[in-house]
Design brief:
mainly alpha
Length: about 160
């Protein structure tokens, strides 16, 4: 029996040793996994930091490009400003010219109306002549038309009488 107990103790010692080895292996594996996770999280943060750095670098370059005062840009801006000033001066002169023309045309229209009203006697005489002409000419035309109609009727009736005979 002592041999069996020794064997059982030996098996238990081997199992205990195996369990200790397994526990140590689990701890080592846990350490490796934790170390790997830390590296992975560091890598993720490093990757994000690299992306942020690139974005900031591009934004800085863009800002620098916008703020650079190139001589060509300054010359172009100056030319545009001069062109705008010339156009505004031309518009002002055109507006002044238009005002002068309107001021000059008003007296012309007013003077024309004034002269027409001053010559009212002329237009009254023209109207009276037209009325007298209408009074004289219309009745004589009606008489002439009715006289020619009577003459045509007389001629027609004379011809009819001759044909009957």
């Amino acid at each position: 029996m002592a041999g069996k107990i020794t064997k059982i103790l030996l098996v238990l010692a081997i199992l205990q040793y195996g369990l200790k080895a397994d526990a140590q292996a689990v701890k080592a594996t846990e350490k490796v996994l934790m170390h790997h996770e830390e590296q992975h999280s560091r890598m993720t943060w490093l990757a994000m930091a690299k992306g942020i750095t690139k974005v900031l670098l591009v934004a800085g370059i863009f800002q620098y490009a916008l703020s650079v005062d190139l001589p060509e840009v300054k010359v172009t801006e100056e030319l545009l400003r001069q062109h705008e000033e010339q156009r505004s001066q031309e518009m002002a002169s055109l507006q002044k010219m238009e005002q002068r023309m309107q001021e000059q045309s008003r007296p012309t229209q007013e003077s024309m109306l004034h002269s027409v009203f001053q010559q009212w006697w002329f237009w009254t005489c023209v109207e009276m002549i037209l009325v007298l002409f209408a009074i004289y000419w219309l009745p004589t035309k009606k008489r002439a038309d009715s006289g020619s109609e009577n003459q045509e009727k007389a001629t027609c009736s004379a011809q009819e009488q001759m044909e009957e005979n």
